[in-house]
Amino acid sequence: MKEIEHRINYNLKPFNTLRISSIADDVYLPKTIDEMTLLLANMDNPVIVGNGSNILFSSKGVKRPVIITKNLDKVNVNPPSIEAQTGVSTIRLSNMAFELGLSGFEFLIGLPATLGGAVAMNAAANAQAISDYFVSAKAYDTKEDKIVELAAPDMEFGYRTSIIKKNPGRYILLSAKFELLRSDSYIAIKETMDKAVEKRKNTQPSLKEPNLGCAFKNPTDKNGQKLSAGKLLDEAGLKGFLSGGAMVYFNHANFIINFNEASSLDYINVMREMQRLVFDEFDIMLEPEVIYIGSDKKELELWNTLLKG
Ligand SMILES: Cc1cc2nc3c(=O)[nH]c(=O)nc-3n(C[C@H](O)[C@H](O)[C@H](O)COP(=O)(O)OP(=O)(O)OC[C@H]3O[C@@H](n4cnc5c(N)ncnc54)[C@H](O)[C@@H]3O)c2cc1C
After folding, report:
1. pLDDT tens column, 66-77
2. Which CATH number, 3.40.50.150, 3.30.43.10, 3.50.50.60, 3.30.420.40, labels domain 6-68?
3. Which residue, 170, 168, 89, is CA-closest to 123?
């Protein structure tokens, strides 16, 4: 493991889109799948980080070893098939699919993510999801200590979930393969991508106002109808609510921005108020979409109350 890029007491600020300062004891940046599997075979319960666009790191630091996947960035193209390693940027994949005249990845243009994070979370937007054209993934099974192939039915994709998310720490994605749709219109693909970007510009903060996307999942009502968490939060009067350096975005009430050196506790406090007010107003318990990584006792207690609702 000697030659694998390794940092000690390393600040994760550039590796999360909320720009939270969080010192990790041990950080590894593998460059090849061999390096990644070597790490996984020799490590106990590492934190896997793609682009950190859905992870709230504790400002008190991270004790578990951290593996950052961004250097696992190889892509194999055989149209309409695309196979990419876990650290490939979703924006790059969207542009690549466009250049090949392939449809299905248009929504990825708006997602500041890696492929691994998108598959683990079953990322979706604008009526498209990463599961739509998914064929299979290679993953390291930490329970069996071997590389396994997961086909689409094995993935248990659901709303913001997958087998990866349901079994924390067991399956670590190495790569994933997709069969996209051949399109005879580059213009149609480009228009869908442009619309996705434009829609976000009008409603969501850019990463100049650091954030983690939606803090909460969209809930369902008692009849199973999907509701918009953002709308409920807006109606409960949360826009502009702040704690320390974290604030509910004025243009979309399900986004929390770091406007002034926010700490993870600030972010959690804002989430608690969002959950409480929506419950008081509508009798609906919002469930966090964001994932917390840390071991601070106070934060963990608060986070667990958020998870339990
Ligand atoms: C501005 C903004 C807009 C967003 N819009 C959307 C949206 O429209 N739709 C949507 O679905 N999400 C959205 N998100 C949330 C986020 O981008 C997605 O959840 C994304 O899929 C996370 O990818 P990531 O690479 O950043 O993952 P990370 O945040 O790094 O990780 C997320 C989870 O995936 C796990 N993970 C990452 N890589 C692997 C791997 N190789 N193997 C196993 N587990 C892994 C991590 O351990 C963690 O549990 C948005 C976020 C932002 C900041």
Report:
1. 999 999 999 999
2. 3.30.43.10
3. 89
Ligand 1 atom at shortest distance from the alpha carbon of 160? 11
Give the per-residue pLDDT at 23.
98
What is the spatial distance between Cα 241 and Cα 9, in angstroms, rounded to a whole number?
33
From-to residues of CATH 3.90.78.10 in the chain: 205-308
Model confidence at 2: pLDDT above 90: no
The separation between the first and the last C-alpha atoms of the chain, rounded to the nearest angstrom, is 42
- Residue of the CA atom closest to atom 35 of ligand 1: 117
pLDDT in tens, 245-298: 999 999 999 999 999 999 999 999 999 999 999 999 999 999 999 999 999 999
| CA 184 to centroid of ligand 1, rounded, Å | 31
What are the pocket residues of ligand 1 if the criterion is a CB atom closer than 6 Å to any ligand atom? 17, 48-55, 69, 86, 111-114, 116-118, 120-121, 123-125, 164, 172-173, 204, 211-213, 291
pLDDT at 179 over 80: yes
Question: What is the overall mean pLDDT for the chain?
Answer: 97
Prediction pTM value:
0.97
Domain 75-188 matching CATH 3.30.465.10: the answer reads yes
Domain with CATH 3.30.43.10 in the chain: 6-68
CA of 291 to the centre of ligand 1 (A): 9
